[in-house]
Amino acid sequence: xxxxxxxxxxxxxxxxxxxxxxxxxxxxxxxxxxxxxxxxxxxxxxxxxxxxxxxxxxxxxxxxxxxxxxxxxxxxxxxxxxxxxxxxxxxxxxxxxxxxxxxxxxxxxxxxxxxxxxxxxxxxxxxxxxxxxxx
Length: 135
Hints:
Oligomer: single chain
């Protein structure tokens, strides 16, 4: 079994469209997380001009992996007036360490709501995650 299976097409409808949706006012929060250094490109260059102009708010939080071997960067962008979502999403994202628990599924659903996903997309992701043991 793939240890990091990808959800099916359509389950992550904001993927790669976060900035466009945020600037249109359709997405209140975007979050990105990976170890430092990341093998992936961080979206700072695209988002930060909008932070500078006041259209978006940015926060980043650094933590350590449970084994202490890696630094983890948690990067958040929110619409002005929606920055309250950052701390709640961050606290909930830390609960994902308890894989397979009802608390992890509840945290994932709440994060989806904070990110602006539609309820049917959240439920589709939760069904997929349960069958793939991805929570």
